[in-house]
Amino acid sequence: MSDEEWERFLRESVEGAADAPVEPSARAREVERRLRERPGQPEGWRTHAPARPRRRTGRYVTGLAAALALLVVGLFPQQVVGWFGGDDGHAGAPSAAESERPREAPGAEPALRGTLAEPFRGSPAVHWADGAAGITVPKARATGWMDTAQVARALRRSKDFMVAAGLDSRVLRGERPTKAIALLNPHQKDVQDYLRAALSSKAPTAETDPLLLFSRFRPGQARPAGDVVKTRGRLTYREGKRGAVEVTADVTFVYPVTPARDSGRDAEVVRTIVRRKVVMSWDDPAKVITQPGTMSLVSYALDMTNGGCSGPTGYFVPPFGTADEQSTDAAHRIDPYDRSKPVGGTASKGDGCATATRS
């Protein structure tokens, strides 16, 4: 190599040759890659397009519909209940079993009349238990002359008496309450005298009215609206006189009935509501003359509404055709579902008969 060629080689090594290839930068390579993958106008290196806001039309429409629904329910509650079939005895949560006296009356229900298909519609009883299931029996413990097992048996038989007196279908049709009578001490003279007078007389008095202990309807006047009687109540017990086990039953019965001669689908349904308080003494046979498996009656009282106010007849007489007529005397108006108050003894005693504030 001549001196001139060597000098040119050194100069081009420092300054670079005019036609030498150029290595692209990292940014240039990135732009070239994007162009190959996404043809068209390239996006700026530091540009940003914000996301388009979502339309909220669906949410606004849903909120408006909910507000309108609440307005309709507030203005027309009874009609709304009717749209969905009303209270048929199974709607809503069932009431818990009653283990002590409630402190207040149950809340109001929509003011709907019962029907043959839904006899308890519009009544607090729609949430109550059916038949004997609504009578709560407490846990037994040794009391008085009885051990725990004997107390449990006394409680069971006390409930059997309330069921036989208030729920037996034959008794409800006016037949003799044989099962209930079998649980009564045959040696208790005053009670046996009452039973003879109450079940044989065609003109009972207030003192010999069989309704004081037994629920009865005259078959020619009223018949059950369905097969269910709603109940709510409880038994309690303590040691009574001479070491006896004294059981108190406080039970409300709701009987839906319809006119006996009206079998149409639109027949009127009236709910006769009866609350009974019966105190029973399971006596020590070593101290009281009694028969095994029977008890003595200490007392019995009755509150009754929609069962007749024309004097004792021995049967409940539902006021068909006059269900909307209410007494104007506040002293004679009671809430038959309010179990927070003591039993007042408003049996069928003429002017002393109470009128229900709701049915």
Key terms:
seven-stranded mixed β-sheet, alpha+beta, 9 strands, single chain, 8 helices, two-stranded parallel sheet, 16% strand, 359 residues
Secondary structure elements and pairings:
Layout: H1 3-15, H2 26-37, H3 57-75, H4 77-83, E1 129-130, E2 135-136, H5 148-166, H6 169-172, H7 178-181, H8 189-200, E3 222-224, E4 230-239, E5 245-259, E6 270-282, E7 296-305, E8 333-334, E9 355-356
Parallel strand pairs: 2-4, 8-9
Antiparallel strand pairs: 1-4, 3-5, 4-5, 5-6, 6-7
Helix pairs in contact: 3-4
Explained architecture:
It is elongated and about 155 Å long. It has helices at 3-15, 26-37, 57-75, 77-83, 148-166, 169-172, 178-181, 189-200, and strands at residues 129-130, 135-136, 222-224, 230-239, 245-259, 270-282, 296-305, 333-334, 355-356. The chain is built from eight helices and nine strands. Strands 1, 2, 3, 4, 5, 6 and 7 form a seven-stranded mixed β-sheet that branches. A two-stranded parallel sheet has the order 8-9. The longest helix is centred in the N-terminal third of the chain and has 19 residues, at 57-75. The chain is α+β, with helices and mostly antiparallel strands. The protein has a domain at 114-356.
